[in-house]
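ASSEMBLY PREDICTION REQUEST
Request ID: AP-0331
Submitted by: J.K., bench scientist
Number of chains: two
Total residues: 288
Priority: normal
Notes: Please return the full assembly, not individual chains.
Input sequences:
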Amino acid sequence: MKLLIVDDANVIRRQIKRTIEGTDGAAGDIDYVIDTAANGLEAMQKFDTFDPDIVTMDITMPEMDGLSCVLQMIKRKPTTKILVISALADRPTAVEAVRLGARGFLLKPFSPEALNEELTELLKEPRRARR
Amino acid sequence: MTEEDMKIFVTGTSHYFAQVADSTAEIATPFEKDPHDHVMFDFSAVIGITGSQRGCVYFTAPRAMVAELVGRLGEPETDDDILADYVGEIANTISGNAREQLGSGFMISVPVVFRGRADDVRFPRDTPAFVIPVHWKGYRSALIICLKDEERNIRVA
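STATUS: Completed
Returned structure:
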């Protein structure tokens, strides 16, 4: 399973990666191959070359925002499972993310447990919104 | 900026620390910043605000405090790049979370981070800046809000 972590904050990319690879991480019995991107443009380049199955996506980023990335990624590969992880707490943003094709929405700051739960659900559930 | 807006940031900051740290932060009484007040610490991040309000939101904290907060994430590295990154993330998260009350019209920029005591940072002259002191585990930090209403009627509940 290939997972692309997109966030402009390195400390958050590292937190997500640590959580997934941790003892109680969502990885479980799944072998994850993880790559990262620090902005929207890099995310789209990695999307083409790395071809991820799952993407965790920040929204507020330089170069290209996360919602634009969600739209482009779903256009290119509709089966991509995207979990938006953002600090933007207004309901319209979460609704828009799901409308564009994201399958989940996790609000920052998040706990490792919440991230693992979201990723686990992402692997088995159809499209939904959750905060 | 109204008292209600101030409460949103006070509550949001308190909520942030409650979630990421295992001990709550004490939020002291906010005050209007005097141009001569030195309120900046080792690492500072500013979020530009546009849309329904215009201005900026700063979070500033001493190095030791940021290092301890980063440790709460399980982050083993405490070099300056990581700490600067995390201060930006704190400012971004508190500002972004405020959209739950302030609505989608409260547009936030990506953070710009300053290292070292940025006491020469200039705030908009036509807008008062309010300092919200944040005390956590003996450390002093601050959220600084400098906002001017652009249009208040686009709030989303």
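REVIEWER COMMENTS: The beta strands of chain B are 26-27, 31-32, 43-51, 53-61, 106-108, 112-115, 130-136, 139-149.
SIGN-OFF: pending second reviewer
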